[in-house]
Design a protein that fits this description.
Structural class: alpha/beta
Largest sheet: 9 strands, mixed
Strand order of the largest sheet: 5-4-1-8-9-10-11-12-13
Number of strands: 13
CATH superfamily: Ribokinase
Radius of gyration: 19 Å
Number of helices: 11
CATH topology: UDP-N-acetylmuramoyl-L-alanine:D-glutamate ligase
CATH architecture: 3-Layer(aba) Sandwich
Order of helices and strands: EEEHEHEEEHEHEHEHHHEEEHHH
Length: about 325
């Protein structure tokens, strides 16, 4: 049995839908308001669980919630999706994480403000890491992002103590101080969007080389990001899956590994984009799930692309994440 462990955030999303985002000092009448479950960690765990084909995979969540009604809802959503919640801790006298999201309805683009709440206390100790990974059997993947304080500590501990576990990382929200050559050499699977890819290049490459990639991308996006994906793949850990994926929104994605040259994968066209919240997390969870199941990288990318295309046609993050049956209808 393969195991996917997600370490990260659980947020309650407060979403406002509007025609435009007001400028500073401006008051604008919005169209509607909704509340949804979210947080990158929760979304990734739900995606991996809902897109699973059954008993061959185990999905676990490591995270914190507050002792409030938001926290109870967040944990119950994971329980309902059959995610193992043994390592979700309730922090007393603390609020659960909250994300305030503004969605421009015409484009579906979103702007997000995050209050960490209990997520800010997610700082596992050495003993806790040992407990999480005391029984490491079968194919193992860990999904990480930057919505909790100890991302780098997680990477360092897992790589040092269980080097065969595939560390899957999305450096979002982007924090340049976390992007170092040492950290990069410990990553096994990197998934970034085009903006994050350029930010990473600016941190790890010389200014000349970074500028050359930008110029190529301006003239030919697919060619430029293919070259950049190849360069970033050379910098990550070569011993495990050693895979880099750069997503380009509606333009598709680029993927590469130690065995596959940079390859372009087209996006799935949809009639109308409603809300892009959670699409990237679903793509991430879908790719990891497929690789953990033994599928090839091209198959994983196709599967995850379909899954994320379903998400953007619905409102909300967690609620819009599809099941494997939903994806199979489009395969």
């Amino acid at each position: 049995m393969s195991t996917i462990t997600v370490i990260g955030s659980l947020n309650y999303d407060l979403v406002t839908f509007t025609n435009k985002v007001p400028a500073g000092g401006e008051t604008y009448q919005a169209n509607s308001f909704e509340n949804h479950l979210g947080g990158k960690g929760l979304n990734e765990a739900l995606a991996a669980a809902r897109l699973s084909s059954g008993a061959t995979h185990k999905v676990r969540m490591v995270g914190n919630i507050g002792d409030d009604s938001f926290g109870k809802e967040l944990k119950q959503a994971l329980v309902d999706a059959k995610v193992d919640t043994e390592y979700i801790k309730t922090i007393k006298n603390q609020s659960s994480g909250v994300a305030v999201i503004l969605v421009e309805e015409e484009s579906g683009e979103n702007r997000i403000l995050i209050t960490a709440g209990a997520n800010g206390d997610l700082k596992p100790t050495q003993q806790e890491y040992q407990t999480y990974f005391s029984q490491v059997d079968g194919d193992q993947y860990v999904i990480l992002q930057n919505e909790y304080p100890h991302t780098i500590e997680s990477i360092n501990w897992i790589h040092a103590n269980h080097p065969k576990i595939n560390i899957s990382y999305n450096p979002s929200p982007y924090k340049p101080e976390l992007i170092t050559e040492k950290t990069w050499a410990q990553i096994d699977l990197l998934i970034v969007n085009e903006g994050e890819a350029l930010d990473v290049a600016a941190n790890l490459l010389s200014s000349k080389e970074s500028d050359e990639f930008k110029t190529t991308i301006e003239n030919d996006k697919v060619k430029g990001f293919s070259q950049l994906a190849g360069k970033l793949q050379q910098l990550i850990n070569p011993k495990n899956v050693s895979t880099v994926v750069i997503t380009m929104g509606s333009a598709g994605s680029i993927y590469t590994s130690k065995e596959i040259e940079p390859t372009f994968a087209p996006s799935v066209k949809v009639d109308k984009v409603i809300d892009t919240t959670g699409a990237g997390d679903t793509f991430f969870g879908g790719v990891v799930l497929q690789l953990a199941a033994g599928e090839s990288l091209p198959t994983a990318i196709k599967f995850a692309t379909i899954a994320s295309s379903i998400v953007i046609q619905k409102k909300g993050a967690a609620e819009s994440i599809p099941t494997i049956e939903d994806v199979k209808k489009h395969l």
